[in-house]
Amino acid sequence: MGFYFNPNIHPLKEYLRRADSVNKAAEVLGIRVIRGDREYDPEKFLRQMVFREEQRCSLCYQSRLERTRNMALKGGFAFFTTTLLFSKRQKHDLVKSAGESLGTKKSVFLYEDFRQGWHEGRETADEMGLYRQNYCGCIYSEFERFRSELG
Ligand code: SF4
Crossing angle for the helix pair 42-49 and 56-75, nearest 10 degrees? Predict the structure, then answer.
């Protein structure tokens, strides 16, 4: 079971574009996906980050994984994990520690270093014609990625 919960993604069109890719991949793989669209709230996300920009990734991982853990508990899933563990561009150790701090006896955080499948995963995504993001997600990361275009 997949859970698409990304209130961090800016702007809304990017959120929808990534959601569309998740839906396509899930269809091919035969995975059901719950979407957290009703919780997509950029104002709330930015209020959590403002004046804490230096810690924003830690807060972001924590809040998304907490919501995922709660969903796993509600659904009776014994394990939960995250695609963040796949990315070579994420702060892997922070993701791992956030997940481990949220695991419970009823829903354990499943840690695995999915980065070992990085190249294969990217190739497969391309073969499937899936959109691949070119910045992490929030407005801060979008600015960092493209600021050089300002000249
Ligand atoms: S850079 Fe990525 S992980 Fe960090 S706050 Fe932004 S969206 Fe979240």
Answer: 130
Site of tokens 């830690």: 58
Q: What is the DSSP string of 104-143?
A: -SSSEE----GGGGHHHHHHHHHHTT----SS-SSHHHHH
The number of the ligand 1 atom at minimal distance from the alpha carbon of 61 is 3
Max alpha carbon distance in the chain (Å)? Answer: 52
CA 141 / ligand 1 centre spacing (Å): 6
Structure tokens at 116: 């070992």
Tell whether the model's pLDDT for residue 135 goes beyond 90: yes
Q: Is the pTM of this model over 0.90?
A: yes
Question: CA–CA separation, 25 vs 42, rounded Å?
Answer: 25
pLDDT at site 47: 97
Q: Name the 3-class secondary structure at 15.
A: helix
Instruction: Provide residues with CB under 6 Å of ligand 1.
Output: 8, 56-57, 60, 136-138, 140-141
Task: Provide the residue type at 41 as one letter.
Answer: D
* pLDDT digits 0-9 by tens, 35-52: 999 999 999 999 999 999
Helix (H) or strand (E) holding 56: helix 56-75
Domain ranges of the chain: 2-115+129-150
